[in-house]
Amino acid sequence: MRADVFGNLITNFRSEDLPESAANGGAINLQVGTHQVARLVDTYASGSNGEAIAYVGSSGYIEIGRQQGKRGAHAESGAWCGGNSHQVAASSTRF
């Protein structure tokens, strides 16, 4: 996993790796550090202000971001995980 220049985390998960509940209703259960990501949205702009969201990025991989967050605020400041190391935990065994 890596962070892009905007501070969004790019995972190695593809949309076909997600459980069916994510594809059908947007329900997802990811944990990024101490932050809960509970919703897969169609576009980055679909997230609520300040909400941690997952979405399929232009590369086809699942990305995690915070809607209307400041550039670099998540990854560069360590806001996601309290440091430079990023880990994502999922509740589904399909990951």
Structure description:
The protein is mainly β and 95 residues long. The chain has a single domain, classed as Elongation Factor Tu (Ef-tu), domain 3 (Beta Barrel), CATH 2.40.30. It is built from one helix and seven strands; from the N terminus they run ββαβββββ. The longest helix has 6 residues. The protein is globular and about 30 Å long.
Strand content: 25-35%
Mean pLDDT: 75
Q: What overall geometry do the principal axes of the alpha carbons give?
A: globular
Q: Tell me the series of helices and strands, N- to C-terminal.
A: EEHEEEEE
Oligomer: single chain
Low confidence ranges? 71-78
- Biggest sheet layout: 4 strands, antiparallel
CATH hierarchy: architecture: Beta Barrel
Separation, N- and C-terminal Cα atoms: 14 Å
Rg on CA atoms, Å: 12 Å
CATH class: Mainly Beta
Strands in their spatial order, largest beta sheet: 1-2-6-5
Number of helices: 1
User: What do we call the CATH homologous superfamily?
Assistant: Bacterial fluorinating enzyme like
List the helices and strands and how they pair.
Blueprint: E1 2-3, E2 9-14, H1 20-25, E3 27-32, E4 35-39, E5 52-56, E6 61-66, E7 88-90
Antiparallel strand pairs: 1-2, 2-6, 3-4, 3-7, 5-6
Quick recap of the structure?
The chain has 95 residues and is mainly beta. Helices cover 6% and strands 35% of the residues. It has one domain: Bacterial fluorinating enzyme like (Elongation Factor Tu (Ef-tu), domain 3).
